[in-house]
Amino acid sequence: MDWRDGKFDERTIVLATATAMSDEQQPALETHDLTVTYHKRPALYGIDVAVPAGSLVGIVGPNGAGKSTFIKAVMGVVPSSGGWVKVFGKPLRENLHRVGYVPQRESVDWDFPVTVMDVALMGTYGGLGLFRRPGKAEKKRASEALEKVGMLPYSNRQIGNLSGGQQQRVFLARALAQDSDLYLMDEPFAGVDAATEAAIVTLLREMRERGKTVLVVHHDLQSAGEYFDRLLLLNMRLVAFGKVKDVYTRELLQKTYGGRLTILSEVADRAAKL
Amino acid sequence: MIQEMSVLASTVDFLIPASGSGKAMMAAVLLGAGCGLLGCFVVLRRVALMGDAVSHAVLPGVVAGLIYSSERSPGVIFVFAATAGLLGAGLVRLMMMSTRLKSDAALGIVLATFFAFGIMWQSRNQQDTVGVMNFLFGNVGSIDASDLRMMLMTTLVLVVTMFFLRRPLLVMSFDEGFSRGLGYPVKLLNGVFYFLLTFSVVVALQAVGVVLVSAMLITPAAAAYLLTDRFDRMLLLSVLFGVLSGLAGGLVSAEVNGLPTGPVIALSATALFAVVYLVAPRHGVLSKVLRTLRRRMRVRRENTLKAIYQIHEVEGFAHEEVSVLMLARKRGLTEDVVRRDCKALLSRGFIDMAEDGVSLHLSRLGWKRAMEIVRNHRLWELYLTNEADYAEDHVHEDAEKIEHILEPGIVRQLEQHLDFPELDPHGKPIPQPTHLVAQPLATL
User: Fold this and answer.
1) Which chain A residue is nearest to residue B164, measuring alpha carbons?
2) Which residue among B214, B240, B257 closes a domain?
3) Do A113 and B183 lie within an 8 Å CB cutoff?
4) In this structure, is residue B411 part of a structural domain?
5) Where in the sequence is the domain holding A143, given as residue range(s)?
6) Partner of B171 at 20 to 30 A CA spacing, among A113, A128, B94, B412?
7) Residue A113 is nearest to which of B175, B181, B234, comparing CB atoms?
8) CATH at B326
9) Residues of B with CB under 8 A from a CB of A
């Protein structure tokens, strides 16, 4: 594939091609030919990527590039029309408990009658199955997660009575309470104040230090080079994936942001009308 | 299977009251509980119209049940009605998935089609479907022991399932994407939800009627939603409201001859909702109006205080008193109105008035508050001009509003940010309420 020419993190290729590996060496996330179509219109074409465990990855690209779609397709929230996804070397379904998903803040109704604590507790539900009630251990985990993002004092607040930044922190607390190994976050920096943005960056780095793998959809190219150690440049197809110093280049960024691939999207439009 | 169910059902017979009014009450409690529980999810998931569609879609099932069961067996009617309801819900989904129609249009089509079909079918089989009016508009009086048995069983299934599944259903209703990530079988849960929804519709059918069942799914839960921010409390309140309106409807329609039960139940639910809508402590209309009024009155008081301060300022703080006449001129209001404003300030200890009522002076508290307001105003003007690149003549209007809502914490941040300024963009001094006594005394 064209993005492999030249600039590519060698280690990634090794990881992607080797077969029998211990868990630490497995890519945390691997997709092959992942393709998504919305109403017959392709949104993502054949994404091949292997994210090494323990990396902090920013997913960047212009509007409509399929950044959110990518992580939604990985999570199975939107159906993919082709390709496969592996998490730590196994199909997603077998390793779902190791994945934490943080949807966009706007995707939920904040008037919902639940408290900050209720939302954080939801992070512990994955281990409980459908019927078991959260007990002391779960509550402790939720409290610790809230403490970490500075939201513990607001435990009993209804979630609508929070600022945008606070709401985002609650979402992050829920993810922390999940205690996953791989995190997929959809625009956690959208609409948050400067203090929260800084707090989130610190939190993400801390998670990386503890060996977590974190993928973050990010809309601000300027800060992307600074916040993350790897970047996934996306514009309906994968433009590049690698360490910041390798892919944060004028040439690749231009390729990412330099308009749509006209022929590709034109053909896609025609196909949609069939 | 229906035979087995009725054998099983007879084990609950000891729960069924003998008297007619006893049966009516029990029916009301059951339908209130079932609809109240399901209604919470209907309201929170914003599928209120789905309840309406399912309830109308059961009509052909009811007609089929009346035609094909020898002596109006509730079991047969239940099975047919539930099947028709689920078929309707399924068709809605199918239409949404296979076309670009959104749910409202799909629901509208299904609702009308099923209902029309049911009415047509019934009119061709009038002898076999004598009791159909009871199902259309509801009649608690028509519910006999075997109906009640069926209702009891269904409600039991409903309550037990809800008890065990309320947590996953809640998470799924709040954040479907996240619940997928938890590994919840989202499709299955959705299926279970629509099964339960159909059950609750069928339970309420004979008491409330096809046309108005959706009122029981929506109104009690909506009232509960306005009252509380906790889900468990919402469930309890919704059930309570459902039961209450069921009871009220049952009793009234039994007392007053010829009143169909359904409309009375629906209106009882609305009456409860209306009360909540008005007086709910946080989300009610009255409390909102009161909050707005209180805020307006405070803003008015603060503006009066500010005007008094500005009169002092123009005079170089030379006099201790301000006359009502001057204040009226400054505020652009009549003396009577200003006197009324002054009374509000007096009662809160912001000013003292001379005995003749002609002049007034600020109390210590009044000075402090007035200075705070003027400071907030000028700080904000300065912030807008310096930091947000507003032109000097564009900042006043904005500051007029902001001055009343700046909290001490933000004021401190502003001061630090602007490096403790002394003058506003128009060159006027920014007062320091902490140097409270110094300024007026220095002018003596």
Assistant:
1) A131
2) B214
3) no
4) yes
5) 2-273
6) B94
7) B234
8) 1.10.10.10
9) 44, 100, 164-165, 167-168, 170-171, 173-178, 180-184, 225, 228-231, 233-234
- Could you tell me if residue B369 is inside a domain? yes
Q: For every one of its 444 residues, what pLDDT tens digit does chain B have, with 9 covering 90 and above?
A: 556 655 665 667 777 887 777 888 888 889 999 999 999 999 999 988 888 899 999 999 999 998 888 777 888 889 999 999 999 999 999 999 888 888 899 999 999 999 999 999 999 988 887 888 888 888 888 888 888 998 999 999 999 999 999 999 999 999 998 998 888 999 999 999 999 999 999 888 888 888 899 899 999 999 999 999 999 999 999 999 999 999 998 888 878 877 888 899 999 999 999 999 999 888 888 989 999 999 999 999 999 999 999 999 888 888 888 898 889 999 999 988 999 999 999 999 999 888 887 888 899 899 999 999 999 999 888 888 888 788 878 888 888 888 888 888 888 888 888 888 888 888 888 888 765 544 444 443
- The CATH number linked to A136 is 3.40.50.300
Note the pTM of the prediction, 2 decimals: 0.81
Q: Which of B169, B191, B214 is the last residue of a domain?
A: B214
Contact B44 A109 (CB under 8 A): yes
Query: What is the domain-level CATH number for residue B140?
Result: 1.10.3470.10
On whether both B87 and B190 belong to a single domain, the answer is: yes
Contacts of residue B234 in chain A, CB cutoff 8 Å?
A: 113
**Nearest chain A residue (CA) to B184:** A130
Yes or no, beta carbons of A114 and B170 under 8 Å apart? yes
- Cα B85 from Cα B101, distance rounded (Å): 20
The reply to whether residue A122 touches residue B171, judged by beta carbons under 8 angstroms, is yes
A162 touches chain B (CB under 8 A): no
- Contact flag B234-A131 (C-beta cutoff 8 Å): no
Query: How far is it, in rounded angstroms, from Cα B384 to Cα B394?
Result: 9
> What domain count does chain B have?
2
A181 vs A59: CA distance, rounded Å: 18
CB contact under 8 A, A75 and B44: no
pLDDT digits (tens, 9 = 90+) for A117-169: 999 999 999 888 788 888 899 999 999 999 999 999 999 999 999 988 899 99
In a domain, B311, yes or no: yes
Question: Which range of residues forms the domain containing residue B91?
Answer: 2-214
- Closest residue of B to A129, CA-based? B184
Query: Phi and psi at residue A59, in whole multiples of 5°?
Result: -100, 115
Look at B177 and A97 and tell me if their CB atoms are within 8 Å: no
B101: exposed, middle or buried (C-beta count within 10 Å: 0-12, 13-18, 19+)? middle
**Quick check: is B246 in a domain?**
no
Same domain, B410 and B295: yes
CA-nearest residue to A117 within chain B is B230
Quote the crossing angle between the two packed helices B261-279 and B186-208, to the nearest 10°: 120
**Which positions ≥6 away from B228 have C-beta within 8 Å?**
A113, B234, B237
Q: How many domains does chain A have?
A: 1
Report DSSP state, residue A62.
S
Give the number of A-B residue pairs with CB atoms closer than 8 Å.
73
Place of tokens 């922190």: A169
Q: In whole angstroms, what is the distance from residue B115 CA to residue B10 CA? A: 33
A77 in contact with chain B, both atoms CB, cutoff 8 A: yes
